[in-house]
Amino acid sequence: MTFTRTTEYALRALGYMASREGEMLSADQLHAKLKIPKKYLQRLLTDLKRSGLLKSVRGRNGGFILSRRTGDITLAEIVHAVEGTRTRPECFFGFAKCALDVPCAMHDVWIRSQSTVQEALQTTRLADIAGTTFR
Amino acid sequence: MTFTRTTEYALRALGYMASREGEMLSADQLHAKLKIPKKYLQRLLTDLKRSGLLKSVRGRNGGFILSRRTGDITLAEIVHAVEGTRTRPECFFGFAKCALDVPCAMHDVWIRSQSTVQEALQTTRLADIAGTTFR
DNA sequence: GTAATATGCTACCCCAATATAGTATATATT
DNA sequence: AATATATACTATATTGGGGTAGCATATTAC
Fold first, then answer.
1. Range of B18's domain?
2. CA distance A61 to chain B (A)
3. Are the Cβ atoms of A124 and B105 closer than 8 angstroms?
4. What is the DSSP secondary structure assignment for residue A56, as one 8-state letter?
5. Whether residue B43 has pLDDT greater than 80
6. What is the reported pLDDT for B64?
7. How many domains does chain A have?
8. Has residue A62 been placed in a domain?
9. Which nucleotide is nearest to A45 (CA to C1')?
């Protein structure tokens, strides 16, 4: 249960945008604020737009803006948008049969830890993390 | 908190070796049993030897053998040997200051989940997973 | 002493995630 | 109309994990 750097970027960017709900922010502004590689961020934002989480406006004074209310977007949704349907291993060791009949020693701990995070992702919303780092 | 495939390989290999404690096993035997790419496994085993977890014997009838008792080696130790001191982010989002003064919304869940697994790694020993998959 | 079977070592190749560069296109300001 | 500032798109490095190949070296069996 680790996320790619890209996912981290997405959460950071959207988290910041949540703290300025209603404002249109350009990739450049976000880059300056969040220190995420400019061009990479640009593409990521475009992707997030394509996935429906953001709206974009081209041209001067353009930028990106959340397409829904911050209280309405779960972190799980964001992770899913960025990572797609990445199948996670059911067993800690990648043992094929473990989960079925012969749980390995780490099985319980692993599953519990996974679902803890997973549930948190589903219940935590953008509004909950808005501006965490920017005070 | 996900591990590389290499770490998984190491845990698999050592787990199997634990189930045959005291026997000298060649990279080839392990490869045949565990379906881990031969050459890659070879190198991994050499690394594990260099890190002190295994002893090796060259030449005919040579191979690898655990250098300590299975009840004496923690999984944490193995992970550390393979991954080195990979610093994990303390904050779920990679927010620099989060852990310090302004915990993010995911902080507690994240830390708790991380340390749950971490503790399990420190308390689970090779003896506990010996031969898990091989019945 | 030669063949067979091991580990040890070095140099590659492949691929996906990450990152960069350049150009095309849209729009507001002047 | 021209300029400045945006996004959109495409192509191209870069990097690290994973994997392969070949030869050197050590040891046992014969």
1. 5-129
2. 28
3. yes
4. E
5. yes
6. 98
7. 1
8. yes
9. D7
Phi, psi of A56 (to 5 degrees): -130, 150
Cβ-Cβ contacts under 8 Å, B88 against chain A: 2
Q: Which residues contact B79 (CB under 8 A, 6 or more apart)?
A: B3, B7, B11, B121
> A61-79: per-residue pLDDT in tens?
999 999 999 999 999 999 9
Amino acid A4: pLDDT:
87
**B134 within domain boundaries:** no
Q: Find the closest chain A residue to B16 by CA distance.
A: A95
- Are β-strands A63-66 and A54-57 bridged in parallel, bridged antiparallel, or unpaired? antiparallel
Q: Is B100 a member of any domain?
A: yes
Do B8 and A94 count as a contact with CB atoms less than 8 A apart? yes
Cα dist from A72 to A52, B75, B106, whole Å: 13, 41, 17
One-letter identity of residue B37: P
Radius of gyration from C-alpha coordinates of chain B: 17
Q: Which two tokens stand for residue B12?
A: 């698999």
CATH code (residue A58)? 1.10.10.10
Q: Is residue B83 predicted with pLDDT exceeding 70?
A: yes
Q: Does residue A33 form part of some domain? A: yes
Segments of A20-108 assigned E as strands:
54-57, 63-66
